[in-house]
Specification:
Chain lengths: 128, 133
């Protein structure tokens, strides 16, 4: 009854973890589209994602893949064209279909992003 | 009282107990429902970090949930066409501290039996969905 492979990625980015992960994925999937994993609301552009209010997010490689997932679900011909992200307190869960070289590289990019302190520093304006 | 609430009352369905669900396709549905006591066979999921087991969820078959359920449990859409609904979670556990998907996934590491007094519905999901609107 359950498919996919769950990967737990430690994060130091706190509330920004989801955003950091999505930005890392978009580096490799520039045409990515998104869906709220709970409600099914679709976001065709990154800026539309309500990042602070999501319990689960699907990131699709592109719109065509999103449509195929809608119609068929997890079938082999579209494996690894969607990443399911679930933020937890100190980790981020990523769910994929199978581990291949391309997906391993993408996961590594997310891990790297979530490890880097630069994403954890709050930018503040200094008084002139 | 809504129609759905009235049906639940007639059926004697107690919604305060923990409801548990198993979604499947027609073959899986026919295999399990043919027995008086439902028997869910343990098997190895694709993820080697998950144990051999019979897997269940607490995600209810509402219209909204069904829009994404098959993607969340990562199965073909055909695998959410039928449903087993039963009361209680005796013998079921959540893995990995209930993180990620394990927040709503329950597993029995052996074959799992559901006696008739715990059985609620075994039907097409579209039919059962009406009870949860």
């Amino acid at each position: 009854m359950i498919g996919g492979i769950d990967i737990q990625v430690p994060t130091r980015a706190g509330e920004s973890s989801l955003e950091v992960a999505v930005r890392a994925i978009r580096q490799r999937w520039p045409l990515a589209v998104f869906e709220n994993g709970i409600t099914g609301e679709r976001y065709d552009e990154f800026r539309q994602i309500p990042l602070g209010n999501l319990e689960e997010l699907f990131v699709y490689r592109d719109g065509a893949c999103a449509n195929l997932w809608d119609e068929e679900g997890a079938i082999p011909s579209i494996y690894n064209t969607m990443i399911h992200i679930i933020p937890n307190d100190e980790t981020l869960s990523l769910v994929i279909d199978e581990k291949d070289a391309a997906m391993e590289a993408l996961i590594q990019a997310v891990e790297w992003g979530l490890r880097e302190e630069i994403f954890c520093v709050r930018a503040e304006k200094r008084a002139a | 009282m809504s129609d759905a609430a009235r049906r639940r009352e007639i059926l004697g369905v107690e919604f305060s107990v923990e409801n548990t669900f198993h979604y499947t396709d027609k073959d899986g549905w026919n295999g399990v429902r043919s027995q008086r006591e439902w028997l869910f066979k343990a098997s190895q999921p694709k993820d080697p970090n998950r144990p051999v087991g019979a897997y269940f969820t607490n995600i209810e078959p509402t219209r909204q949930n069904l829009k994404t359920l098959y993607k969340r449990i990562r199965v073909p859409k055909a695998k959410q066409q039928y449903i087993f609904w039963f009361a209680g979670r005796e013998g079921l556990v959540r893995l990995h501290g209930g993180r990620g998907r394990d927040k709503w996934i329950y597993v029995s590491v052996d074959d799992y039996r559901v006696s008739t007094d715990r059985q609620r519905r075994a039907d097409a999901v579209d039919t059962v969905m009406e009870e949860f609107q």
